[in-house]
Amino acid sequence: VDYPLHLGVTEAGPRFRGGIKSSVGIGILLSKGIGDTIRVSLTGKSIDEVKAAYIILNSLGLRRVGVDIISCPTCGRTTDDLKQIVDEIEKLTAGIKKNLKLAVMGCIVNGPGEAKDADLGIAFGKEKAAVFLKGRVIKRVDKNIASKELKKELERLV
User: Fold this and answer.
1) C-alpha–C-alpha distance, residues 158 and 30, integer Å
2) pLDDT tens digits, residue range 8-54?
3) Sequence-ordered alpha helix ranges (H) in 6-141
4) At what angle do helices 146-157 and 82-93 cross, to 10 degrees?
5) Which residues, in sequence order, are bridge partners of residue 2?
6) Which of 59, 80, 66, 61 is CA-nearest to residue 122?
7) Residues 132, 105: contact at Cβ < 8 Å?
8) Residue ranges of the chain that CATH labels 3.30.413.10
9) Which of 19, 29, 68, 96 has the most beta carbons within 10 angstroms of its beta carbon?
10) Are 85 and 147 in contact (CB under 8 A)?
11) pTM of the complete model
12) How far, in Å, CA of 105 to CA of 124, rounded?
């Protein structure tokens, strides 16, 4: 095709459902090299559409911008409110444009494996949390200050 091809799912719906529909519809085409521009249409705030578009591009490796947070789905080994911690970190990193991968893991079993590919990571244990930088443990801290320590290390990276 001699002209730019625009991709979008215009009847996607609300943020969660619409984000998934757009990811599938747009993502499949982009992964096959089809498309030059994208538009994510969601019922709600325009900023959510922009964020969803960036996440689609980041997920496909087409544009790396901002912090990619990798977190576990939680299981019986998780002893902390990981969702609250991840939500806090997501808010904290919302304006960061630097391309970083951040792992937030609920246990020490899977944490080291996820953190090895991350720029910064944390894995919670029963009493302590391990903070990782470029896949290496840089400190072990009490769980009650682990989020603060992660934030400090994040500020150093940015």
Assistant:
1) 30
2) 988 778 989 999 999 999 999 999 999 999 999 999 999 999 999 99
3) 15-31, 46-59, 82-93, 111-115
4) 20
5) none
6) 80
7) no
8) 67-157
9) 19
10) yes
11) 0.80
12) 6
